[in-house]
Amino acid sequence: MANRGRHEFSVQEAVNMDSFVSWHYEELDMSAADTSTYITSDDPAKKVVLYLSPAASDALDATDTLTLTINGETATKKKIVIDPGDLPFTLSGIMITALIITPGGATAGEEISVLSFH
């Protein structure tokens, strides 16, 4: 049995999506599109929580939006658009192999924290 990625757990553990081996924390700068470095196809996340970074020098404005691209899909229907009022935002129930956050209206100093469970 492999000990990383999709095949680390038994079938029952993998199905319930509640078994985690590790977690990672990172802060993404909202001045440009940014990609999570810990969420990869070799180490997919089962759950991701996005929230305002406590270390940010500037808070997100109500007019800012975040576009999440899940698993590298580029079709419009594969993107999730959220606003700061929706934070904290949790993604779960699917294997997430890539997470790209594209800001809309955010400026330097605004950051989003990403907590991913693998």
Question: Can you walk through the features of this model?
Answer:
This protein has 118 residues and is mainly beta. It is built from 1 helix and 8 strands; from the N terminus they run H-E-E-E-E-E-E-E-E. A hairpin with an 8-residue loop joins strand 4 and strand 5 (79-82).
Write a short abstract of this structure.
With 118 residues, this protein is mostly beta strands.
Could you name the key traits of this structure?
single chain; 118 residues; four-stranded antiparallel β-sheet; 1 helix
| Low-pLDDT sequence parts | none
Q: What is the number of helices?
A: 1
Tell how many strands the DSSP assignment holds: 8
- The coarse overall form would be globular
SSE pattern:
HEEEEEEEE
Helix content: under 10%
Give the structural class: mainly beta
Q: What portion of residues belong to β-strands?
A: 35-45%
Average of the residue pLDDT scores = 79
Amino- and carboxy-terminal Cα gap: 17 Å
How is the secondary structure organized here?
Blueprint: H1 11-16, E1 23-29, E2 34-35, E3 45-52, E4 65-70, E5 79-82, E6 89-96, E7 99-104, E8 111-117
Antiparallel strand pairs: 1-8, 2-7, 3-6, 3-8, 4-5, 4-7
